[in-house]
Amino acid sequence: MPTNANKPVSPLLVVLAFATVYMVWGSTYFFIKIAVAGFPPLLLGALRFFTAGLLLMVWCAIKGDKLFVPRNILHAAISGFLLLVIGNGVVIWVEQTLPSAMVAIMVTSPPIWFVLLDKPNWSTNFRSKSTIAGLLIGFTGVILLFSEQIESMLGTSAASSKLPGMLLLVFGTLGWASGSLYSKHYNNKGSSLVNAAWQMLAAGAFFIPASFLTNEVQTVKWSNIPAQSWYALAYR
């Protein structure tokens, strides 16, 4: 009797899945820009990740998933810090000063870091002509897309204010790649949804005290936050 694993996948579902990823993932930088216009960056990260992690954890509990596995929680916390605090947190921070389109282009660099940082697979990756060619083509594409903005930016007085954000964003992409590789090599055997929930709760556990220490919570005027920032937070 054939199993579900051998059942062919509908091409339409594949197209819809990719379209959803492109639209949701691609638009997230635009909505971060809208959200951070009303929320302080660390408070935005705290609200986003802790709320999402809590809701997902409740859903996992309703499903009956096993939630408290110390080893899995530890790995999720480490990968969550790298992915969401360093990787996504830097994106939130730099969008205070950088255009969302510029950020979206720059965060396409993680594939380069994946290959450079994935030491266990160096012998395979660096012997693969297709991998090297893909990296070179992708890197060239990023430079071409970004060259006009770099040239125009460096030709203005705004260069000094945007350069730190650009360098910080490179660090953020390194964090995202490191977190992804950590998840790959220390793959948890538990539920992927539970793992994602712990990742977000771990990120929230960092952002919440950080937002208090930087006086964002104490000084934010909730009534002054525009409705579109709340909508953008809900979308994300």
From TrEMBL:
It comes from Mucilaginibacter oryzae. Signal peptide: none annotated. Its main location: membrane. It holds the Pfam family EamA. SUPFAM superfamilies: Multidrug resistance efflux transporter EmrE. PANTHER family: EAMA DOMAIN-CONTAINING PROTEIN, INNER MEMBRANE TRANSPORTER. InterPro entries: AA-Vitamin_Transporters, EamA_dom, EmrE-like. Belongs to the EamA transporter family. One of its GO terms (cellular component) is membrane. It is a multi-pass membrane protein. This is EamA-like transporter family protein. The keyword Magnesium does not apply. It is found in: Membrane. Residues 15-146 form the EamA domain. Keywords: Membrane, Transmembrane, Transmembrane helix. The chain crosses the membrane at residues 12-32, 38-61, 73-94, 100-117, 129-146, 166-183, 195-213.
